[in-house]
Amino acid sequence: MSKRTKEILANMTLEQKIYHLQQITTATFLTTKESKFEIITGPDSAVKLDKGMVYDVGTSLNLVGAETMIDAESNYLKNSKYKIPLMIMQDVIHGHRTLYPINLAVAGSFDRELAKDLAQMAAKEAALDGMSVTFAPMVDLVRDPRWGRVMESSGEDPYLNGEMAKATVEGYQGDMGKYNIAACVKHFAAYGAAEAGRDYNTVDISERTLREYYLPAYKSAVDAGVKMVMTAFNIVDGVPCVGNKHLVKEILRDEWGFDGIVISDHGAYEEMIVHGACEDKKEAAFLAMDAGCDIEMMSSCYVEHLKELIDEGKVTVEQLDKAVLRILDLKEELGVLDNPYRSVNVEEAKKVQLSPEHRALARRGAAESAVLLKNDGVLPFSKKVDSVAVIGPLGATGAIHGSWHCGGKIEETVSVYDGLKSLLGDKVKYAQGCPIEYDAVDESFFDEACQLAKASECVVLCLGEDQEYSGEGNCRTSIDIPELQYKLLDRILEVNKNVAVALFTGRPLAISRLDKTAPAILNMWMPGTEGGNACASLLFGDAVPSGKITMTFPRALGQCPIYYNHYTTGRPKAQEDDEKFVRFTSCYLDMPNSPLYPFGYGLSYTSFEYSDFKLSSNTMNRGDTLVASVKVKNTGKYKAKEAVQLYIRDVKGSCVRPVKELKGFEKITLDVGEEKTVSFDITEEMLKYWNRDLKFVAEKGEFQVFIGKDSACKPFASFMLI
Ligand code: BGC
Fold first, then answer.
1. Element (H, E) at 61
2. Which pLDDT does position 33 carry in this prediction?
3. What is the pLDDT of residue 35?
4. Measured from the CA of 186, which atom of ligand 1 is nearest?
5. 144 carries an active-site annotation
6. Which band of pLDDT confidence, cut at 50, 70 and 90, is reported for residue 43?
7. How far apart are CA 415 and CA 430, in angstroms?
8. What is the distance between the alpha carbons of residues 595 and 578, in angstroms, rounded to a whole number?
């Protein structure tokens, strides 16, 4: 806190301070609408502000565009009584105007630098539109593919989530001067554990599970210096997160030492009443302030009741001051106090957003995030073919850039058809094949598609789910591709076997049937603005797939939740019996335990040989560092990248430990025939966990070490921690 912000605070009235904690939509301040204040409609009408004070709220959210930002900010300042500049925040989730793949895909690149570069690109584009804060990264650990928001997350592993959290926070907040924006990690905490994968649903997990799996990624963001934290909609242990003192005050603030801004999620203060956690808005205001939440997004409990609570002595002016100071401090740090237009630049925005450099980076992001799930030899297709058919409801649309598209536009996104045409020219033809809706039954497009497939040398079949089937509020009880798409595939295969499926999805899908029938499956996820170009270069061998999945793909939804880092149980079924039913072991009558594709899985056009596994010692004294290493050789025909993964298993603990845990990874590039040694340090710190007494310690005993290309790899050595 600086002298300057303290002085500003000293001159603020009580009412002004309270309004500084209020966040409403930026659109409220536009001059281009008839009645600015009346824009707060629909769910937003819950925000009851004094018309005289609307122009003195501290922050606002979500409105893209440099010109609109200038209009909103200047109109705000013109009408503001107190003239403290407004700080504008925005959901810049997987890109601002140039979209890159959804975060679940980017995590699968296993490339920290790439994740950082992409975040940096987004920050620059957002800063040029005048944004000061992004509501990202979202680092909720996820295990249930029904949940629509898995697309925003980096997956099911606490370590990988933490690494991606750190990389993206560094990207947004990095070293770009005025182009930096502040990051806001969300949704604190455990939003990803919503029961039955239904958005906003109950979360009920033990303190141990919370600490072991769910909290580490938020903590990594905090350790990386994230400026803000957003609380989650859900309850944890019966208390909504925004009013959860244990989470916000005891863990986030006291234990982790976070002194930045805590913001609620959209309308979450008032939702505490609906949860049944408090009686009215006054109690909601009290609970949130008591827990340590500073900014109230899109409800108005503070402005309506904080003064009363202060008069009654339930909230102190010191508490209020602290919250206001945090906001003023961030405004000062970002330069908003000096110049709210610090980074906005209409002309530069036009040049930088969607520039060739940004498109190239988005394209690299998409190419390195795509996952080759199956290839029986058809891929890569040869560029020498005379005719290529692009078929499928996702083949000629830009609606593959992902559901949190911010300023991104469908018409600015390269479709697969367009991408292939720019690579191969007129020999590429398109037929829709079938509609995209999950309940579509119309087969009338089949004949045209089959004729095209028959007349073509190879077929790119673009299947999957609509991009609006994932994202907030978009949950599903069926996660296979629609029956109609299977029928289309079968019909196409009758006339042409040279078929590769380009899959588009915002979540892991249960595609056992597709895996059986399709000759090749390239999972593009939702690949962003340059998706079509990236897809074309991968299918025709200009790029080699190297992405891996960071969330398990189940064989069927009935296996969910399914994740690699589970506990063993007292009656595990032996891996060699996976295909059999073995009664009285932990298994299913009708399906193996193993997933369709495990965490960390992804194929390449080349092959890698792992050999010469080494561990520097079989004992570790406290404070020692062991080194685990492996030689990886490119034994195939393509220069390619590989994400080498280190896993460790703590064989016995005062609390049971997962069957394995990711503890390191390195993405390497190998030329044809090239060999590299990859080494990982193993430290005592990496062996720590929340033990029986909820102490974060490394317990003595045996640890197994695994290195491999995915989480199905086997241990090659073990050591004793003494
Ligand atoms: C979402 C947040 C988002 C906020 C602001 C909420 O509905 O849960 O992730 O940041 O809206 O748009």
1. strand 59-61
2. 65
3. 46
4. 9
5. no
6. very low
7. 11
8. 10
User: Can you tell me the mean pLDDT for 458-462?
Assistant: 98
In 3D, which of 109, 110, 113 has the Cα closest to residue 101?
A: 109
* Torsion from C-alpha of 293, 296, 297, 303, nearest 10 degrees: 180
Token representation of residue 489: 């595939």
Q: Which amino acid is at 417?
A: Y
Both tokens assigned to 330? 């961030």
Q: SS3 for 313?
A: coil
Whether the ω angle into residue 380 lies within 30 degrees of 0, i.e. cis, is yes
Q: Helix (H, G, I), strand (E, B), or coil: what is residue 269?
A: helix
Asked if the model's pLDDT at residue 569 lies above 90, the reply is: yes
Query: Which of these is catalytic: 111, 265, 294, 329?
Result: 265
- For residues 291 and 241, give the distance between their C-alpha atoms in angstroms, rounded to a whole number: 9
Size of the chain, expressed as the number of residues it contains: 722
pTM as predicted: 0.97
**H-assigned helices in 531-668:** 531-539
Q: Convert the pLDDT of each residue in 463-489 to its tens digit.
A: 999 999 999 999 999 999 999 999 999
For 502, phi then psi, to 5°, come to -95, 115
Q: For residue 485, give the nearest of 437, 429, 525, 431 by alpha carbon.
A: 437
Backbone angles phi, psi at 466, to 5 degrees: -55, 145
Residues 559 and 145: beta-carbon distance below 8 Å = no
Q: Which of 310, 324, 359 is nearest to 533 (CA)?
A: 359
Within 8 A by CB and 6+ apart from 601, the residues are: 371, 373, 548, 549, 553, 709, 710, 711, 712
Residue carrying the six token digits 């369709």: 596
Instruction: Identify whether the C-beta of residue 36 lies closer than 8 Å to the C-beta of residue 28.
Output: yes
**Is the pLDDT reported for residue 454 higher than 60?**
yes
Residue 68 has pLDDT above 70, yes or no: yes
For residue 490, give Cα distances in angstroms to 379, 487, 495: 19, 5, 9
Rounded to whole angstroms, the Cα distance separating 287 from 278 reads: 8
d(CA 200, CA 203): 9
Residue tagged 């925000």 (tokens): 47
CA atoms within 13 Å, Cβ hemisphere of 532: 24
Structure letter (DSSP) for residue 457? S
How many A from CA of 612 to the centre of ligand 1? 48
Between CA 183 and CA 160, with CA 137 as vertex, the angle to 5 degrees is 130
Residue minimizing CA distance to atom 12 of ligand 1: 91
d(CA 81, CA 359) in angstroms, rounded, equals: 43
Return the residue whose CA atom lies nearest to atom 6 of ligand 1.
266
How confident is the model over 356-402, as pLDDT tens digits? 999 999 999 999 999 999 999 999 999 999 999 999 999 999 999 99
Q: Which residues contact 158 (CB under 8 A, 6 or more apart)?
A: 141, 212, 213, 214, 216, 217, 661
d(CA 710, ligand 1 centre) in Å: 33
* Residue bearing tokens 């629509």: 148
Q: Which of 20, 30, 24, 13 is nearest to 48 (CA)?
A: 24
Contact in structure between 544 and 671 (CB atoms under 8 Å): no
Determine which residue's CA is closest to atom 5 belonging to ligand 1.
Answer: 266
- Name the DSSP class of 499: E
* CB-ligand 1 contact for 183 (6 Å cutoff): no
Cα 187 to its chain centre, rounded Å, is 11
Which residues lie closer than 8 Å to 150 by C-beta, 6 or more apart? 104, 142, 144, 192, 470, 506, 507, 508, 551
Instruction: Report CA-CA distances (Å) from 615 to 219, 619, 643.
Output: 30, 10, 19
